[in-house]
Amino acid sequence: MRANREIYADHAATAPLSPRALQAMMPYLTGEFGNPSSAHAAGRRARRAVDNARAAVAAALGAQPAEIYFTACGTESDNWALRAAMRMQAPKGRTRLITDAAEHHAILRTAQALRRAGYRTQVLGVDRLGRVSAGSVRAALDESAALVSVMAANNEVGTRMPVRAIAQAAHEAGALFHTDAVQAVGHVPIDVQELGVDMLSFSSHKFGGPKGVGGLYVRKGLPLPAGLYGGGQEHGLRSGTENVAGIVGTAAALTEACEAMEKNRAKLTALRGRLTEGILKKIPGAHLTGDPEDRLPGSASFVFEGVEGEPLVLLLDQRGVCASSGSACSAGALEPSHVLLAMGLPEALARGSLRLTLGAENTEEEIDEILRILPEVVALLRKAKR
To answer: Which domain holds residue 360?
Structure first.
């Protein structure tokens, strides 16, 4: 347990920076400050660092280096993928975006903006586990479909999506396929060739890299329009001086995460099982959300009858447990989770959500401490409502 007794169980919001990533970044935060676009020696060293990092990230994803574009975050990558793909497909008469109701707001709000801009969008429902089926996507596809965007794994409940089957269905109908893999990359095996995706978004800080760096895989030969115009960086598609230190740290963190993936998956699955079993046993009216098995290894999500999620998170924080209620990106919004509502949960129950997401540094002792604290907090909140 950490020196300050804080238990960090919110890795889906952000993971701690990997020491290996920090070590790799340090030269580019200090003496190696060159601009990769400069022709002098300092610039050339920075360019080599970016090129090497791009190659490492590509190797981790089963891609080619020229297919990796660095961005500022997963949200930027999602926005770029959706907006650019729709713009590219429109001249062919393909003006409809298909996605699902459990997506991250980076997808759903971009879809709303595209609708206001004159494109058509279709948001498919999900089942009680938070999963959209390949069959429902296939049924929605026709000659007007431009793009299908379905996440690889849900950020709130951890359910994994049938990405390969959905990508195949999209391609059979002549549509492109994008996946928001922000929660999946670095935690479960991702091979863009095997999945058959056209575009894939990722975010560095979810797997131990620094905040402020993300990326978009774009399949070779796909003429995706630029996301940012300017000096022509990132193969001319995402202009702006590269965040050299952040990119180097991203590559180091992702390489490390992939090397330790099998070991970490086994550990996290065991810890998650211990946590889930304990919560369901110790707390009456507790319900696991998402797929019980086919989910991200460290993701455990629940709803509690007669409890509001926000005060639950605040009281846990007071007792040294860092957790979240639904998505961290919409924390403080007092609205019930759109993911849980899409899964068919009643609004009153959806308000009582708790997301506990674990990392490799968590221990059995910390799980047992959560299992001591959480039942007390739930009981306290229920008593206060009487």
So the answer is: 7-16+261-385
Q: 73, 258, 322, 329: which is the annotated catalytic residue?
A: 329
Domain stops at, among 259, 280, 315 = 259
For the stretch 163-197, pLDDT in tens is: 999 999 999 999 999 999 999 999 999 999 999 99
Structure tokens at 88: 């590219």
For residue 1, the model assigns a pLDDT of 38
Q: Please tell me the pTM assigned to this model.
A: 0.95
Catalytic residue check, 73:
no
Number of domains composing the chain? 2
Are 36 and 247 within 8 A, CB to CB? no
Looking at the structure, tell me whether residues 130 and 270 fall in a common domain.
Answer: no
Q: Which residues pair with 98 in a beta bridge?
A: 122, 148
pLDDT in tens, 62-86: 999 999 999 999 999 999 999 999 9
Indicate if 105 and 234 belong to the same structural domain. yes
Answer yes or no: do 168 and 300 share one domain: no
